[in-house]
Write a structure and sequence with these properties.
binds guanosine-5'-triphosphate, binds magnesium ion, 5 helices, 23% strand, globular, GTP-binding, Rossmann fold, alpha/beta, seven-stranded mixed beta sheet
């Protein structure tokens, strides 16, 4: 599935222009700069597929990625919680992300990225609440695991697991990743493969 040549399909800035809801969609969500676009590149093995940047606010539209004969569309989204851009713009991104998460019929799973150094924040909880209400299953993926020490990571996983146990639509599995060191990427691939072929 991920050995295929993934390519960019389209970008949209409003719900009216979404591509046809044809196959299984999975979307990458999380705070600004958490590493959504980098993880999509690591998964697909295509470094420049989704644009990344050390400056938050890089991804500003819903970006759709597809591969030939693959029943799966990957969606990269703007991050939430970025306070430095003009408020109108940030509000528009957040509205778009939340309407998409709430109202996309073929959205099968949300990969909810959490920075290993920061853990779950208030706006991540808001997103979880929205997904719980919309009954969209979300999977927490810890990012930038190369930035913290193994015992710290182990503690974060334990805490996160306890928090997720109380949520409605949370997938129980937590995957720790590093796009930089290619860690945990195979595990996530395996999960998405199962999802796409089910
Ligand atoms: P927005 O689109 O702005 O919301 O950001 P994003 O979540 O798509 O993050 P992006 O993938 O652009 O990465 C943000 C920064 O984090 C970049 O400088 C990346 O190089 C860095 N980064 C991403 N993943 C990792 C990782 O696993 N390890 C390390 N050390 N840095 C990472
Ligand atoms: Mg991005």
């Amino acid at each position: 599935l991920f050995a295929r040549p993934w390519e960019f399909l389209t970008s949209v800035t409003d719900m009216a222009n979404l591509p046809e809801a044809a196959d299984t969609e999975i979307a990458f969500a999380g705070r600004s700069n958490v590493g959504k676009s980098s993880l999509i590149n690591a998964l697909t093995g295509r470094k420049g597929l989704a644009r990344t940047s050390s400056t938050p606010g890089r991804t500003q539209m819903l970006n759709f990625f597809v591969a030939p004969e693959t029943p799966l569309t990957i969606v990269d989204m703007p991050g939430y919680g970025y306070a430095q851009a003009p408020k109108d713009l940030v509000d528009a991104w957040t509205r778009l992300v939340f309407s998409y998460l709430r109202g996309r019929p073929n959205l099968r799973r949300v990969i909810l990225l959490i920075d290993s150094r920061h853990g779950i924040k208030a706006n991540d909880l808001e997103t979880m609440e929205l997904l719980d209400k919309a009954a969209v299953v979300y999977q927490v993926v810890l990012t930038k695991a190369d930035k913290i020490k193994p015992p710290q990571l182990a503690r974060l996983i334990t805490e996160t697991r306890a928090l997720l146990a109380k949520r409605i639509a949370a997938h129980p599995e937590i995957i720790a990743t590093s796009s930089e060191k290619n860690k945990g990427v195979d595990d996530l691939r395996a999960e998405l493969f199962l999802l796409a072929t089910q």
